[in-house]
Specification:
Blueprint lengths: L1 E5 L5 E4 L5 H12 L2 E7 L5 H14 L2 H8 L5 E6 L11 E2 L4 H12 L4 E5 L10 H10 L2 E5 L2 E7 L3 E2 L2 E3 L5 H11 L2 E2 L2 E4 L7 H8 L4 E4 L2 E4 L8 E3 L4 H14 L2 E8 L6 H8 L3 E10 L2 E9 L8 E2 L11 H8 L6 E3 L12 H11 L4 E4 L2 E4 L7 E4 L4 H11 L6 E4 L11 H8 L2 E4 L1
Parallel strand pairs: 2-16, 3-15, 5-6, 9-11, 10-12, 19-20, 23-24
Antiparallel strand pairs: 1-24, 1-25, 3-4, 6-8, 7-8, 12-14, 13-14, 16-18, 17-18, 20-22, 21-22
Helix pairs in contact: 1-2, 1-4, 2-3, 2-4, 4-5, 4-6, 5-6, 8-10, 8-12, 10-12, 11-12
């Protein structure tokens, strides 16, 4: 799918973004392993979340989950039989393009008395899996990877708690260890090198799990949770593209019912440093997750900024759209310690640079630092590089170009944000797909 973006539009109005993928993955796993009835509302209709639902359905035998995974719509009601209700799947568990699905389910499977194989698409099969396999082996699971990647085979069984320091920040690996700890003998402690997204801990604490957080150390003990009800808030990372679009076009826009978990809104602080006025109004909470309204006023000049290596893990999913904003700012922006972006759905460092340069901007990589020169975009052609966040970031960047921009592969946005282009058009963007 090719997207043509005509510059010069002014955006206005209010919108909603799909439900938070990070929350949805975790709540689907927790609902499928709960003892009792769970009701989930507001689940996002994205391919990654369907992958998690399909895998949990294959393990739990839930017909409701299987039906939702094949054609999601409306609320999801699941009757769970707890950890003991999980059984060996009939075949490999296909995680699609979702590293979150593969890594977090590994923790669930580590404590089960059967063998499972986890597979994925070509992109997922290039991503590193030893980082999750290693701690699960230390807990007692038999985990085999394919040269450090998927497919993975997990022969689960009795686990023992461990104390494990993450070598690199990873909420997915942390969550896998915590899920495994729910079936382990003795306490399990995960120590993060830097505080990251905390959706797993928030949900487990809300469900009454014996969880303790001291600084960057999270400790969990064996626990069987009951059923629950939850309303998935809008995805903060998806809302960042709306904030970026308003910033680049000098517009006022509101995003309603979006998640405001502080571990996910660090990008707001970066945007503010760049001169974007963003207000947060908390309105409601579900299973410990706060949600409300982001109000954006993009009027005013944009300026470059520096995102340090220590700050970058908190905005790693938002770097593509932050780079899009930086391309239109005055002065140079630097995103330091960004090497992990090479290991996402694509090499996002390369994708950002090629995209911005292709549309007439200034971008380069020095070591693990992404450098955006600023000064705007002349217009031109770019590729989504088979990556949903690159696709959306380039579409947002194109809104402020001096001439038309053409982006190939816009269909990849459906991985996390079905209807993304339609949302931009509803706010006033001049864009069309062919």
């Amino acid at each position: 799918m090719r997207l043509r973006v005509e510059p010069g539009a002014s955006l206005s109005g209010a919108t909603r973004v799909p439900g938070d993928k990070s929350v949805a993955h975790r709540w689907l796993i927790l609902a499928g392993t709960a003892s009792g009835r769970s009701v989930l509302r507001g689940l996002p209709d994205g391919l990654d979340v369907r992958s998690t639902a399909a895998c949990v359905a294959a393990l739990s035998g839930s017909e409701a989950l299987a039906a939702w995974a094949s054609g999601p719509s409306g609320d999801l009601v699941i009757e769970g039989d707890g950890w003991a209700g999980l059984a060996a799947p009939a075949g490999p568990l296909d995680c699609g393009n979702s590293g979150t699905t593969m890594r977090m389910l590994s923790g669930v499977l580590a404590g089960r008395e059967f063998t499972s194989e986890l597979t994925g698409d070509e992109s997922l099969s290039r991503r590193p899996m030893e980082r999750v396999a290693e701690p699960l082996r230390l807990m007692g699971a038999d985990v085999t990877t394919t040269d450090g990647h998927a497919p993975m085979t997990i022969r689960g069984g009795a686990l023992g708690g461990i104390r494990y320091e993450l070598p690199v920040p990873s909420a997915q690996v942390k969550s896998a260890i915590l899920f495994a700890g729910l079936s382990a003998e003795g306490p399990t402690t995960v120590i993060e090198p830097a505080a990251g997204r905390n959706h797993t801990e928030v949900a487990l604490a809300s469900l009454g799990a014996p969880l303790e957080v001291v600084g960057n150390a999270i400790t969990i003990a064996a626990f069987q949770h009951g059923g629950f009800e939850g309303d998935v808030p809008g995805d903060p990372s998806s809302s960042a593209f709306v904030v970026g679009a308003a910033a680049i076009t000098g517009s006022k826009v509101a995003v309603r019912d979006v998640g405001l978990n502080p571990s996910r809104t660090a990008f707001v602080g970066v945007m503010r440093r760049m001169g974007v006025r963003v207000g947060e109004q908390e309105r409601w909470e579900s299973l410990g997750e706060p949600a409300g309204v982001l109000e954006v006023d993009g009027h005013g000049p944009l300026r470059g900024t520096i995102v340090s290596a220590a700050e970058l893990p908190l905005v790693i999913d938002e770097v593509p759209v932050l780079a899009a904003v930086a391309a239109h700012a005055e002065g140079v922006s630097r995103f330091e310690g960004a090497g992990e972006l090479r290991l996402k759905e694509s090499d996002r460092l390369a994708g950002i640079v090629y995209g911005i340069v292709g549309m007439g901007g200034d971008a380069r990589i020095e070591g693990d630092t992404l450098i955006i020169g600023g000064g705007g975009l002349a217009g031109g052609n770019a590729s989504a590089a088979a990556d949903h966040r690159i696709a959306m970031a380039l579409a947002v960047a194109a809104l402020g170009a001096r001439r038309d921009c053409f982006i190939e592969g816009m269909e990849w946005a459906a991985i996390s944000f079905p209807g993304f282009v339609d949302m931009l058009v509803s706010l006033g963007a001049r864009a069309e797909t062919t």
